[in-house]
């Protein structure tokens, strides 16, 4: 796999950093997740695929010393805390990069390492709001809404940070040097929205929220309810595809307003809605499948993996716990990601094995354990 041999230390965080670590693990990196000890009641990392867990108390000096030794042997550190926490622990970039100049020190935060909010708590919706993108999301006359925590936490956070790490790893092959990655989710999601900025003068966004081409204003870029309470997604933007949509709906475009007649969009939406409501999702699929009308079923998590197209590409995988989840993307032809099919690690499950791998002696491990700096948890055998 492309990242085979890359050693990553991921400090346990809430959602963005775990996705970043999982992406690296899926593509072959050896990811050690450092969990807190005393451990939290509930393992909150549901993206633990392919990782191993070491439970370590960073607030104790011997614990911080353990992390420093791990980072001396690692290629990447991912830290998910607000600005200043690592410095307070004596684990800031100056310290760790001094001891390992090749280390790629990735700091994944909401607001970044500087600026008025750098030390403020926040979540996806806050970062999305501060990026400006949230102001564009939502239907006409409704409040802006955040699409779950997909955009800032994951797209602008975990994925953007993984890109930064892989870019820095590539650069290091030439310079031999590591560096600090300041991955701000505000900036990550703002960066993703470059298209919105660059298309300002194309007339795509100069109407109020929810009245534009791609933000639920246009009847040909919308979802519609079917007779069986499911939905179809319509994305027939180009005239030639729009013509196929009209045909599939049994309408005659000569008797309709022009596709880009903004003032007619509300009425056209009502017309489309009344037609889509007359047939089931399966019936609409039999009409539109195989055409260029850009009409697809809105699949639920229950049926997405078994849909013919997704099945043909094995887009979803099932681990040995029978848990379904998306296969890693993108698909590399020669060195594809090979995700682990094992269950996620328990907190502290691999503490001893990891420390031995990183050069700690049995004696040192015993002392760390007796001082409660580390925790070792062996999964209970299924009796
Ligand atoms: C996971 C579910 C989905 C959450 C997604 C949500 C929508 C997000 O947006 S997540 C993105 C959050 N933001 C960031 O990641 C940006 C950077 N991080 C931060 O800004 C902050 O970390 C923070 C604001 C997120 C949290 O601040 P906090 O003060 O808690 O922490 P920090 O200031 O960063 O400091 C860290 C402190 O921890 C110490 N530490 C760290 N590691 C160690 C260690 N190994 N040993 C010792 N100490 C350690 C460190 O020293 C710092 O200490 P100090 O503060 O003293 O300096 C979640 C959605 C719902 C959740 C569930 C729900 O809330 C109910 C339960 C609640 C229960 O408490 C936990 C289980 C829940 C089931 C809970 C589980 C999940 O969280 C959810 C499902």
Description of the structure:
With 383 residues, this protein is of the alpha/beta class. 34% of the residues lie in helices and 14% in strands. It has helices at 16-26, 61-72, 85-88, 93-99, 124-131, 150-175, 185-192, 194-198, 239-248, 265-276, 281-288, 308-312, 351-357, 362-370; strands spanning 7-11, 30-36, 51-56, 76-79, 104-109, 179-184, 221-225, 231-235, 295-297, 316-318, 324-326, 374-375. The strands form three sheets. A seven-stranded mixed β-sheet has the order 6-5-4-1-2-3-12, with helices on both faces. Helix 1 (16-26) links the parallel strand 1 and strand 2. The radius of gyration is 25 Å and the shape is elongated. The model has no long low-confidence stretch (mean pLDDT 96). The structure holds ligand L4ZMGOQ5. Residues 11, 13-16, 34, 36, 42, 44, 56-59, 80-82, 85, 88-89, 109-110, 121-124, 149, 153 line the site of ligand L4ZMGOQ5. Ligand L4ZMGOQ5 is lined by residues 11, 13-16, 34, 36, 42, 44, 56-59, 80-82, 85, 88-89, 109-110, 121-124, 149, 153.
